[in-house]
Amino acid sequence: MSRAARLLELLQAFRRYKRPVSGAALADELGVSLRTIYRDIETLKAQGAAIDGEAGVGFVLKPGFMLPPLMFSEDEIEALVLGSRWVAERTDQPLGQAARNALVKIAAVLPPDLKAGLDESTLMVGPGAPLAAGESELPVIRDAIRRQRKLTISYADVNGNCTDRVIWPIALAFFDQARVIVAWCELRNDFRHFRADRILGLKVEAIGYPQRRAVLMKQWQEKVGLHLRKRRDGSDV
């Protein structure tokens, strides 16, 4: 591994830790000597990385530092290309365009050899089954999730029975053939999953929901997160 690649790996390792990590743990993760880790930490500090700590106590990287120029491994380049292509093909139009724009911005700051890998990636997204309707509402739903706003929806269940619901949307899942909103439902007083194509009407409320989204996400994950991964449909019943 080159020194530049090793420094990048060390940065990535730091970012995986939220608390101070020992030099020995970093050395073991990167497969180098403890002396090399200490030397590389000093090199990163000289380049502007805000690394706090000391030997025997542990080190932590403060957020906001990136080694110039922006560097990725070949696998990371392919993951970025494949991911952006999937988003462009399998999500709503604004999100797909955002993925394309992000890739252009990344390409603009990559070294020439890595930019070539970005342009010449051979990983493709194959055609999938037709997606259900409901795409036009997805940007509104995503914005409501970001701003933690309640939604009032008219929702048809699998049998076509329609009810009016007030929901607190916390996540949006993209399945092979459906988009599913994860939300707290005031009608059911519990978490529910709503297919976007079964929403017949939608209104974003001016007020936010009373709990933080992060708290609701944790509660949902503890209760039904594993169940959702087992189901292909995931919709409310």
Walkthrough of the structure:
The chain is globular. The chain is built from 8 helices and 7 strands, in the order H-H-H-E-E-H-H-H-H-E-E-E-E-E-H. The protein is of the alpha+beta class and 237 residues long. The relative contact order is 0.09. The protein has a 5-stranded antiparallel beta sheet. Strands 1-2 form a two-stranded antiparallel ribbon. A hairpin with a 3-residue loop joins strand 1 (51-54) and strand 2 (58-61).
Reconstruct the topology from this structure.
Elements: H1 3-15, H2 23-30, H3 34-46, E1 51-54, E2 58-61, H4 74-90, H5 93-109, H6 112-119, H7 138-147, E3 149-156, E4 162-174, E5 179-185, E6 190-195, E7 199-208, H8 213-230
Antiparallel strand pairs: 1-2, 3-4, 3-7, 4-5, 5-6
Helix pairs in contact: 2-3, 4-5
Quick recap of the structure?
Helix content is 44%, strand content 22%. It has helices at 3-15, 23-30, 34-46, 74-90, 93-109, 112-119, 138-147, 213-230; strands at 51-54, 58-61, 149-156, 162-174, 179-185, 190-195, 199-208.
